[in-house]
Design a protein that fits this description.
The protein has 413 residues and is α+β, with helices and mostly antiparallel strands. Helix content is 50%, strand content 12%. The protein folds into 4 domains: 1-151, Beta Polymerase, domain 2 (2-Layer Sandwich), CATH 3.30.460.10; 159-238, Orthogonal Bundle (cca-adding enzyme, domain 2), CATH 1.10.3090; 241-363, no CATH class; 370-409, no CATH class. A hairpin with a 4-residue loop joins strand 9 and strand 10 (138-141). The termini are far apart.
Length: 413
């Protein structure tokens, strides 16, 4: 199959003048260009496109020279693999020359450029990612991807085991795309190949593993993908910290997200699968080379203890003041998930009210500083620090109500 009869895309991004200008540049002198991959897939599934990437029969060096001749910038972002970033009036488009794999090592490939759309499609990972459209919206399908899009089936192109040996990252991509676009049970051949090839994951960089996991956990409902990752043993390989804790909290967590209107949060979902232990999450964060902000949030959560559901708001505020607000919020929300899992709805609802108060609460600023005490004649040093801490404790105990003047009046210099 090539062009799909009686099907034509009519997307706003396809009509964009900048994109059409790029088509003009690439299609000079017999060159061909088509939008490829995600933008076409999402258009056919009624979803917005995040990026519009093109494929072309024009060689990379020629793409660069044509862009320069037309007065536009071309950046050789991946020229050894045929990829140029074209910058048209501030908009960036990735342009990749048609290619086929000559040699693969499980992650990187040696490619040969060509003009055969079928060969280019054959080297892609999943059928739903193997479609193209031309500048007027005609859709081309060389890998039978359109039926899979219609049925929301995530399936490897050709032999799944061979595709995984070519690039072991495809194991994680299989589950990521299933989380975002799949329905029902995952493709049996794909599942089997992923399970059999899971030891290949050890050859991947931890940064790429975490990027794929985070993307998977960011899907609106990754529950079934996480279940199948666990069933095949792949979750245990990429997230061994989950093995002694499990994923039982995930279904309830996802239901509560919908009920409470919480945005999909990959770190919070990760918390539902690991023990709230500081040493554990520090090791996890370091192992996956997480950002400092991600590590801090996980450790703050592990350090936080959800209060009793019947804690007063004033006591809650005092607890939050001396702790991490985000850590407390994560702890309370996750404890509510566990309470609902134990059918303790009353305590869960009470805790959710506290969590909402925590979310909305703005930490007040202590009104005194060292220079305020210095103006009263107190020398800087340990004694001043001790006095400030005592005054702050008194201010917190008052419910943050004591004024600066009232606090100063209590000081004996």
């Amino acid at each position: 199959m090539s062009i799909i009869e009686n099907l034509k895309l009519d997307e706003d991004w396809l009509q964009d003048e900048k994109l059409q200008t790029l088509f003009d540049i690439l299609e000079r002198e017999g060159g061909e260009a088509r939008v490829a991959g995600g933008a076409v897939r999402n258009a056919l599934m009624g979803k917005p496109a995040s990026d519009v990437d093109l494929c072309t029969t024009v060689l990379p060096e020629q793409v660069l020279s044509r862009l320069k001749e037309a007065g536009y910038k071309g950046v050789p972002t991946g020229i050894e693999h045929g990829t140029i970033t074209a910058v048209i009036e501030g908009n960036a488009f990735e342009v990749t020359t048609l290619r086929k794999d000559i040699e693969t090592d499980g992650r990187h490939a040696v490619v040969e450029f060509g003009t055969d759309w079928q060969e280019d499609a054959n080297r892609r990972d999943l059928t739903i990612n193997g479609l193209y459209c031309d500048r007027v919206g005609n859709v081309y399908d060389y890998v039978n991807g359109y039926p899979d899009i219609a049925e929301k089936q995530v399936r490897f192109i050709g032999d799944a085991a061979i595709r995984i040996k070519e690039d072991s990252l495809r194991i994680l991509r299989f589950f990521r795309f299933f989380a975002w676009y799949g329905e029902g049970r995952p493709d049996a051949a794909g599942l089997k190949a992923c399970a059999q090839g899971k030891d290949l994951i050890s050859g991947l960089s931890v940064e790429r593993v975490w990027a794929e996991l985070k993307n998977t956990f960011s899907a609106p409902d990754p529950g079934r993908a996480i279940l199948w990752m666990r069933t095949t043993g792949i979750l245990g390989v990429v997230l061994p910290e989950s093995q002694k804790w499990g994923t039982d909290a995930i279904p309830g967590l996802l239901r509560l997200e919908v009920q409470e209107g919480w945005k999909p949060d990959p770190l919070f979902r990760l918390m539902g699968m690991v023990r709230p232990d500081k040493k554990t999450v520090e090791g996890l964060s370091d192992r996956l080379s997480m950002s400092n902000a991600e590590k801090e949030r996980l450790t703050d959560w592990a350090d936080s203890i959800a209060p009793s559901p019947y804690t007063s708001l004033s006591d809650l505020e005092r607890q939050i003041y001396h702790a991490s607000k985000q850590g407390m919020l994560d702890a309370m929300r996750l404890e509510a998930v566990h309470l609902l899992g134990r059918d303790d709805e009353a305590r869960a609802l009470a805790l959710l009210k506290l969590a909402k108060h925590c979310e909305d609460w703005v930490k007040p600023k202590f009104p005194l500083q060292g220079h305020d005490l210095a103006e009263l004649g107190m020398s800087s040093g340990p004694e001043m620090g001790k006095q400030l801490k005592a005054l702050e404790a008194k201010w917190v105990e008052s419910g943050f109500s004591l004024s600066k003047q009232t606090l100063l009046e209590t000081i004996k210099v």
